[in-house]
Description:
It comes from Geomonas paludis. Helices cover 89% and strands 0% of the residues. It is built from 3 helices and no strands. The chain has 2 domains: 3-80; 84-114.
Amino acid sequence: xxxxxxxxxxxMVKLVVGGLIGAGLALLLAPQAGKKxxxxxxxxxxxxxxxxxxxxxxxxxTVSDFVDRASDRASDFLKEKEGLTKESxxxxxxxxxxxQEKLEEQRKRLADxx
Length: 114
């Protein structure tokens, strides 16, 4: 997965959170009855929370699918290319290790944000 794909999921979450904050501030500063404003904010927060959860679920599913496909393709590649040179196998192993490190970094970032 390219850097752009990783960023898009995070950017979507930031966009939703920013929208919620902006909408909340606009409503709080608008001249309207407090009870009506609180009720509207509650419904808006519930709606945006649902959308944020959907976005996160979609992103998690995309990452999971990508990892599964990459793993399958690596296995298929190794089966087909059993005659690879030792140097080629080392290069492939290094690429897989780097990908695994990147996934672990992202997992840690997510765990830290919880």
